[in-house]
Amino acid sequence: MMIRSRSGFRPTTLHAASNGSSMKGRAAASTVCAFVSTVVALSAAAPALAQEGLEEIVVTAQRRETSLQTTPVAITTGAINAVGWVRFTVAGPLASEWETNNAAMDLNVNGVQNTPTTPNDVTVCVNSPNTLNILSTNVGLGWDMAYGLLPGVSGPGACTPGTGGIPTPGGQTININLGDPTLGFFNALLFPPYLAPLSLPFSIAAPIPNISAQAIVFSVTHPDGFELSALLQLHVLAGPPSVAGPIGDDAALSFSANVGPNCFPAISMYGTTYTQWHVITNGRVTMGTADTSFTVQPASTGPAFAGCWADFNTVIGGTINVVNTGTGVRVDYNGIGYFGQTGTASTFNVEFFANGDVSLGALAIGAPIAPVNMYLGVGPGAGGGLPGGVPPAPWALGSGTYAGTSSEAIGVFGSAGPTSIVNGLSSVLFTNNGSGYTISL
Questions:
Q1: Is the N or C terminus of the chain more exposed, i.e. has fewer CB atoms within 10 Å?
Q2: Number of domains in the chain
Q3: Do residues 250 and 275 share a domain?
Q4: pLDDT higher for 393 or 210?
Q5: Which residues pair with 57 in a beta bridge?
Q6: What pLDDT digit, counting tens, does each position of 295-334 carry?
Q7: What DSSP element (H or E) covers 438?
């Protein structure tokens, strides 16, 4: 640490040493703050002191047991050769504001770790798959885990007193709030022997602002006789019920599954679960890759998708809304117009279910002014292959023509096309059959 004196002399150098004790990378924190006023005075006086033969200044700190946030300082002298520079040596292990994980005790969710200046904050989504990991190399020694609903408390930091965290004599920090009225213990303070790494899958069905936890395992090598994990703080979000979709021509809005703040789920199509999916203004939802092409292609090209694919443009009119149904995703296309055709409007939705089914609903496909190609259905993308067969009657798109298989449909609208799909058809369900989809009208 470099600290410049008020008198303009060269900065003071502050060195911290642990006297051989393991500090696991912890900073000198509150001790450093206590030295600031001393450093300023000594650096200002350093030239005079040097002339008098000052060789070294060593500061030794020892934590006082009766107060967890004060560090008495003793100053001795020794060798120094650079006038205006002062070296401080801090003895003894010093705790950090927030305990960190280590090989002896590692508590985390999904592998996330923290630093000595922050708790191990992890945010997950409601109903998302997660893993709680409790890892230790102290096999056979007793362990437990404290937990509660209140946030953790920080230990003393650099120029801060902390919020109630308790530094241990061996340089660790107890960050779990021991005053939490919801405090509990995973093993009821029985400290059974730790036998093997624990990786526990879990999901939480309702939002929870905070769950705190800190684990402990006995140790035969640590000065405290035990080792602590980091303070885990888990936050469970529900996410908003819906968000606005993309706007413009050939535009996309991308989503990552089970990631806040939106917390939308993954989507399954053709036996594959996609954690990245994209809402396209051209009437479809693509999997993995955001394909904004307005040119309708066969189902066996590009990424897997579902929707009413045509050259739409929300600048002409209409909106797109993305809805989290709780068990899946629904994308609502409301009154969107064809590119370059003012006054046209189509309304429909594309819904993905947890079991892999897909539906196209509320179908009110607007008539174009000029011919428009449209792909209404689902497609596996490049290399996906398609099962044979034809869809059941009455499968037709107005005055256009149909070509496809049981998993796809392509309609070509004429300039005098109808305002909706013929025969009153308003929805299509694509039922996941394990290898593709079965169409139900």
A1: C
A2: 3
A3: yes
A4: 210
A5: 77
A6: 887 666 789 999 988 899 999 899 999 999 988 999 999 9
A7: strand 437-440
- The alpha-carbon radius of gyration of the chain (Å, integer) is 33
Rounded-to-integer distance, Cα 322 and Cα 91, Å: 58
Residue 164 lies inside a defined structural domain of this protein: yes
Q: For residue range 234-261, list pLDDT tens digits in order.
A: 999 998 999 999 999 999 999 999 988 8
Residues 192-204 have a mean pLDDT of 96
How far apart are alpha carbons 306 and 441 in whole angstroms?
A: 16
Sheet strands (E) in 316-417: 319-324, 329-338, 346-352, 358-364, 372-379, 402-403, 410-413
- pLDDT of res. 135: 98
233 in the same domain as 252: no
CA geometry: angle at 265 spanning 432 and 202, to 5°?
A: 105
Contact 299, 409 (CB under 8 A): no
Query: 3-class SS at 57?
Result: strand
267 assigned to some structural domain: yes
User: pLDDT digits over 90-130, tens only?
Assistant: 444 567 899 999 999 999 999 999 999 999 999 999 989 99
Look up the domain containing 82 and give its range. 2-88
232/253 same-domain check: no
Q: Do 122 and 55 reside in the same domain of the chain?
A: no
* Domain match, 266 and 311 both: yes
- My answer on whether 290 and 419 are in the same domain is yes
Q: Are 210 and 264 in contact (CB under 8 A)?
A: no
Of the listed ranges 271-285, 344-358, 372-386, 424-438, the least confidently predicted one is 372-386
Residue 97 in domain: no
Contacts of 379 (CB under 8 A, 6+ apart): 298, 299, 300, 302, 304, 305, 306, 386, 407, 408
* DSSP 8-state symbol, 295: S
Q: Percentage of the chain with pLDDT > 70? A: 68
Tell me the three state secondary structure of residue 165: coil
| Closest to 32 in 3D by CA, of 170, 160, 173 | 160
Identify whether the C-beta of residue 394 lies closer than 8 Å to the C-beta of residue 441: yes
Position 435 in a domain: yes
Same domain, 287 and 397: yes
